[in-house]
Amino acid sequence: MYKRILVCLENSPTDPSIIDHVKELARLCDSTVLLIHVADGWAARNIKQLDLRESEEMREDREYLERVAAGFVAAGIPSEALLATGDPPAEITAAADRERCDLIAMATHGHKLIADVIHGSVATSVRHRSMVPVLLVRAPAPPKAAS
Predict the structure, then answer these.
(1) Staple partner for 14: which of 4, 84, 107, 120, CB 3.0–4.6 Å?
(2) What is the pLDDT of residues 69-88, one digit of tens each?
């Protein structure tokens, strides 16, 4: 059913929920996986226009993507990593089209409506922009600190 799955990663504690889910789905569908992280800091957003070098944060993101891709490969799932720069929803939807992905998989934080209005939601924007089906997996809430 799904031959190529684009997996959006944040390099955050929400990632394992989508990684674990996609590993099982990719096995069932005999899919290949393309992992993407969109660096959106100042250097990343201006890297092309100002001919900047990759920032330390971007290098760390690239290494993280390569480690996760290696985990998929070790599990027998063909995988590639893509570090993009710029506006996350635009880069994710463009990559899905360019790379001929037939599913976009993302973890969500589960913000309430007000938090999404204040912080915005990459998942909501991707879902509205893309003609490719979007799988959203709710990440578990972080443990509450003891009082």
Answers:
(1) 107
(2) 999 999 999 999 999 988 89
Whether the Cβ atoms of residue 49 and residue 35 lie closer than 8 Å to each other: no
Strands (E), 1-132: 4-8, 32-39, 79-85, 103-108
Give CA 4 to chain center in angstroms. 14
Closest CA to 40 of 90, 108, 5: 90
Domain extent, residue 134, equals: 4-138
Asked whether residue 144 is assigned to any structural domain, the reply reads no
Tokens of 84: 């993009």
66 part of a folded domain: yes
Which tokens belong to 127? Answer: 């879902």
- E strand spans, the chain: 4-8, 32-39, 79-85, 103-108, 134-138
Distance, in Å, from the CA atom of 86 to the CA atom of 40, rounded to the nearest integer, reads: 5
Identify whether 82 is part of a domain.
yes
pTM: 0.85
Q: At 137, phi and psi to the nearest 5?
A: -115, 125
For the record, the structure tokens of 17 come out as 């929920």
| Per-residue pLDDT tens over the stretch 85-105 | 888 999 999 999 999 999 999
